[in-house]
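Supplementary Methods S3. Input chains for the assembly prediction are listed below.
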Amino acid sequence: MTYAICNSKTFSSPTISPVCSYPNFQITPAMAMAMATAIKRSASAATRAISSATSSSILTRDLHASSGKKKIVGVFYKAHEYAKMNPNFLGCVENALGIRNWLESQGHEYVVTDDKEGPDCELEKHIPDAHVIITTPFHPGYITAERIKKAKNLQLLLTAGIGSDHVDLKAAADAGLTVAEVTGSNVVSVAEDELMRILILVRNFLPGYHQVISGDWNVAGIAYRAYDLEGKTVGTVGCGRIGRLLLQRLKPFGCNLLYHDRIKMDPELENQIGASFEEDLDTMLPKCDIVVINTPLTEKTKGLFDKERIAKLKKGVLIVNNARGAIMDTQAVADGCSSGHIGGYSGDVWYPQPAPKDHPWRYMPNQAMTPHISGTTIDAQLRYAAGVKDMLENYFKGEDFPAQHYIVKEGELASQYR
Amino acid sequence: MTYAICNSKTFSSPTISPVCSYPNFQITPAMAMAMATAIKRSASAATRAISSATSSSILTRDLHASSGKKKIVGVFYKAHEYAKMNPNFLGCVENALGIRNWLESQGHEYVVTDDKEGPDCELEKHIPDAHVIITTPFHPGYITAERIKKAKNLQLLLTAGIGSDHVDLKAAADAGLTVAEVTGSNVVSVAEDELMRILILVRNFLPGYHQVISGDWNVAGIAYRAYDLEGKTVGTVGCGRIGRLLLQRLKPFGCNLLYHDRIKMDPELENQIGASFEEDLDTMLPKCDIVVINTPLTEKTKGLFDKERIAKLKKGVLIVNNARGAIMDTQAVADGCSSGHIGGYSGDVWYPQPAPKDHPWRYMPNQAMTPHISGTTIDAQLRYAAGVKDMLENYFKGEDFPAQHYIVKEGELASQYR
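Predicted structure tokens for the full assembly:
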């Protein structure tokens, strides 16, 4: 199993991680220290509140205290007839990460479902006595503050993949829960997918494909807005693991590569990747022919690309977003595509998910959208299924996880979610 | 203007060029020498025949003897309403490579048309007195032996782009014509497009896009056959300029890269690109998860991928072909896609072109086809329009072209077409 080469998402240190980026917002080490202290304080307060209300102590919800038989709940998408078509298709309800026999042979209970919405859903039914909930960003089981309150036995929330914004992380931290994801498991998958989408937009692939299936042949109708990627300016908003892997793959294309992040890369790595640091997001954006979003969804990045920011982008800009749909203002993107200010938009993330039938991104011109798929290739599934199994093994033994997997640990959020 | 870094398609030397590859067929330098001598002999014979029949000598058809006002005929695709949508859209009938004023101000006649088929077409009408014919691979004016016979004034055939198989090269050589193309003008364009197509097939993009536009959301229906490119084996059949540019772009993806060609690359370049040489095509092919065709269409590569050869490929193989449609057996490809033996097929080349409405590749499963577009991006058009202008300028002055542009010169074919 080969994980990503970058290794920046460590949780334990209060120094600044380069994983995500906030526009116009720089966190100094001193601020981070202050925030960490504040979070710890609020976590302790919450622990006291829980202790008095339920007579459980934080230890009963702490990873290291776990022992005995556990109830594990998995929320995945259903694969129906596709489940049997590929023995490595592990990330679905039917194949349940391939860990059922392993769990049940040790006496644990393992419930899996895709039914995750509303008060009468299957997930809701198992919340009160689940010890562990596993879910994915592709079909997220939303773990709200309300659900956390009901989950008296809950100790551990595992994301099979990357991106734990489906969990109310503050509520999880306050309740003393551990949240972890399989960091690195699908970063290559997402970076490859982003480069595919860049090429699809730059080269105007889809109008040509539409001509083929509708019996037409009109080269001019494609060529008048088809370009080479070579020589264009590509900027990534956020330059953590995925952003760096993308830049490395872009290097031989002969582009002008820019990146915005909270901190500058190590000069040697920056030189090797061949990208230039842009401290200020709004200074970088108008230079870009292609903008790629590689920042997690946080309170600070929600709606980051609103009408005003989109208006400042270069006319005809191409946007690729495999990060999270809610980083964009949905209607502003649709309007930008309709007016031609945005020349093309491609991504696999939506808000909400699954995208409703009337989601405007389904019908806007020059879109190259798919359902949330980039991080759930068969290769990625094998990696994140193995990563979840490893963490469960640690959990049963009362051992720590690899440090970079923690999103919430001992009441503290990983730096990219602070 | 930046041309490709590789520079292997030189005409003047009788040594072996690494531009194209023939399966199971190795031309030794001695054979190449013998062939060149034979071609020169036949060219001289043809010259004598023409001289006696028309009282013109080879000199009147030779590039270096040209002088005075010329009639230039351009065959391009029509762009209709798209012609005005982009000032750099030069490669269409309406914009005529952007050289009309320049030609006419010097007193030359410049006729352009898209009407190129049958005995009554516009091209046929201008054949008898044209001195120069310019055409493109995207909407090829087929210059047959019969047309060459009728073209009493013809001296020069220019391809705005790369690939001159629309010309009967032997007939052109026998008639003492010069054939040249803008070598390097769109190699980057085609290589980028190939990498896009590899990713579209490996990652199973199109079923996801279809779900979006039809109001569906079914991640499983995409994921069960979506993979990462990382770790897969990619083999290129032919490793000239385009093949090498593709391999360079593939390098950071962490694939196992193979190439088959008539000769092995310089060890330093091979090491830098990170690809392994496969001397025997049929030994390489069964190793490949993805096969990319990068060989010109010649008598030896026509129908190279027939039913038997396709049957020997790995089950589920993905094929990308931006070279020429006729390298494949059309029905064998369609049958392979239908049976699932071919897991996906993508390319922009067909036989014939434009592809008729009932061409089976339009309707076979798991195809990601477009009309012939990869080499006619706006960037490529700017380069090949400039390259054609430069060669016309040379021609008017009686100067030589850059050596690598020649396809037929003084009765001799460039090595990749021998």
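Confidence is low (pLDDT under 50) at residues 1-60 of chain A. DSSP finds 14 helices and 13 strands in chain A.
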